[in-house]
Structure to design on (416 residues):
C-alpha cells in the first residue's frame, strides 16, 4: 500500500512539473529522477504548492501545512534546487523549479560531499537523450520561445553592422551591467562526466551568473562568488575554446551566460542531434561567407557546434541558415577571415524580460492557465484551468496571440 501511495505522489509531482513553462513528459526515467531527488513528503508539498511565485504565508494557506514543518520542508527543497526562494519586494517568494532551467541545472551544480552524482547523471542522461521526451515535448511543434538565446562574438560581426549591436547582445556589456557575479559547474558537462560520456577537455567551472540571481546560488552552495575580472577572463577563455555563449533569453536584467560545447550541451544537441531549431533562440545575426577570401580549409565545418555548416559537392562550405545560431564560433576559426556575421533580414524576437519569456513559453506549451489559476487544491481553479487552457490551446488563438500584431498587447494585458 505504501509503495502505491509513494508512486501516486510522484506521478502527481510529474504532472505538476510538466505543467510549467518547460514540459517534462512522464516516463519511467522521469519517475526514477523524481524518486531519487524528492522525499515523499517533499513531493507531496510541491504537488500542493501554487504554480507561481508565492510568499510563505500564501504557501502555508494553500497547502495547509503547519508553519514549522513547512519551513523545514521548504528549506530542504531550496537547498536542493527543487524550489527557488527569490528575494522580491522585501521578502522571499517561493516557486517550484521547472525541469530546465531549474531541477537539472541546480542538481548537477551541487558539489557537497554527500551527493550521488554518478546516479543522478545517469538518470538525467537517460531522460534527456530520449528523442521522444524533453526535446520533442518542447520543440516538436516549432516552438520559438526558449530560455536561452545565442550571443554573437562581437569581433566576428561585420563592421557595417557593428554599430547596430545592442547592449543586451554583447556579453561584455551584460557583465558590465552588474556588480555581483558567481561561477559554477556547467550542469551538462558535469552530467556527461559522471555518465562517462564526456569527450572534451573543456573545464567544468564555466556557468556564469550575474546580479540578484547570484544570491540564490551562493546561499545554497551551487556557485562561487567571483570578481568582474574573473568573469571577463571566463569569457576570454570561452572565446579561445570556441564555446557558444548562450544568455538568458530576455533583453533586460540578463542573469546568466552559459558557455556551451556542442559535444556536451543538451540544448545544443536538441538542434544537432534531434533536428529542432528552437532549443536556442538565434542572435539577430547570421554568418555569411566571402567566396573570394574562403580557402575551403574546412575549419568552419569542424568548429560549428551544431553542424550548421557542411561541405558541398564542390568542396566549399555550405551554411544551413535555418539553424545557424549567429554565434560567430565558426568565424573565430576562419584563418582567411572569410566568415562574418551580418544582420538577419528577418527580425528576431527576444522577450523584454523574464516575465514575458515565461508567459510566452507557457502560451506555446499550453500551460499558461496554470499561472492564472495557481491553487492546485481549489476546485474552482481546477475548473477554470480546464476552460481557459482549452481555449488557449486552440491553434488559431495561440497563433494570434504569438503573432507580431497581437503579442505586445497581449503581454501588456498580462502585466496589468
Amino acid at each position: 500500500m505504501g509503495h502505491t501511495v509513494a508512486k501516486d505522489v510522484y506521478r502527481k509531482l510529474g504532472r505538476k512539473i510538466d505543467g510549467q513553462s518547460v514540459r517534462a513528459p512522464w516516463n519511467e526515467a522521469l519517475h526514477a529522477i523524481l524518486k531519487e531527488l524528492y522525499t515523499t513528503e517533499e513531493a507531496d508539498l510541491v504537488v500542493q504548492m501554487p504554480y507561481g511565485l508565492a510568499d510563505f504565508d500564501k504557501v502555508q494557506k494553500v497547502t495547509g501545512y503547519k508553519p514549522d514543518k513547512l519551513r523545514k520542508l521548504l528549506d530542504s527543497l531550496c537547498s536542493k534546487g527543487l524550489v527557488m526562494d527569490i528575494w522580491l519586494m522585501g521578502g522571499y517568494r517561493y516557486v517550484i523549479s521547472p525541469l530546465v532551467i531549474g531541477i537539472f541545472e541546480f542538481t548537477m551544480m551541487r558539489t557537497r560531499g554527500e551527493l550521488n552524482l554518478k546516479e543522478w547523471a545517469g538518470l538525467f542522461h537517460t531522460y534527456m537523450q530520449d528523442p521522444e521526451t524533453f526535446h520533442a515535448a518542447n520543440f516538436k511543434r516549432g516552438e520559438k520561445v526558449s530560455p536561452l538565446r545565442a550571443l554573437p562574438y562581437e569581433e566576428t560581426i561585420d563592421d557595417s553592422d557593428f554599430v547596430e549591436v545592442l547592449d543586451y547582445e554583447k556579453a561584455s556589456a551584460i557583465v558590465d551591467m552588474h556588480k555581483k557575479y558567481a561561477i559554477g559547474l556547467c550542469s551538462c558537462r558535469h552530467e556527461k562526466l559522471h555518465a562517462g560520456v564526456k569527450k572534451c577537455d573543456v573545464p567544468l567551472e564555466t556557468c556564469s551568473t550575474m546580479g540578484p540571481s547570484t544570491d540564490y546560488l551562493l546561499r545554497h552552495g551551487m556557485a562561487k562568488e567571483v570578481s568582474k575580472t574573473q568573469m571577463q577572463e571566463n569569457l576570454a577563455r570561452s572565446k579561445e575554446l570556441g564555446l557558444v555563449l548562450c544568455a538568458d533569453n530576455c533583453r533586460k536584467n540578463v542573469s546568466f551566460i552559459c558557455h556551451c560545447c556542442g559535444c556536451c550541451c543538451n540544448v545544443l544537441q536538441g538542434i544537432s542531434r534531434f533536428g529542432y531549431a528552437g532549443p536556442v533562440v538565434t542572435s539577430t545575426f547570421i554568418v555569411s561567407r566571402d567566396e573570394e577570401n574562403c580557402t575551403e580549409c574546412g575549419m568552419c565545418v569542424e568548429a560549428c557546434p551544431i553542424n550548421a555548416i557542411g561541405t558541398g559537392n564542390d568542396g566549399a562550405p555550405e551554411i544551413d541558415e535555418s539553424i545557424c545560431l549567429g554565434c560567430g564560433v565558426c568565424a573565430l576559426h576562419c584563418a582567411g577571415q572569410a566568415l562574418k556575421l551580418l544582420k538577419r533580414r528577418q527580425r528576431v524576437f527576444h522577450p523584454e524580460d523574464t516575465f514575458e519569456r515565461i508567459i510566452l513559453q507557457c502560451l506555446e506549451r499550453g500551460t499558461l492557465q496554470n499561472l492564472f489559476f495557481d491553487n492546485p487544491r481549489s476546485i474552482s481553479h481546477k475548473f477554470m484551468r480546464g476552460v481557459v487552457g482549452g481555449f488557449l490551446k486552440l491553434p488559431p488563438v495561440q497563433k494570434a496571440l504569438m503573432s507580431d500584431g497581437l503579442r505586445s498587447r497581449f503581454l501588456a494585458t498580462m502585466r496589468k
Remarks:
- The two ends are 47 Å apart (CA to CA).
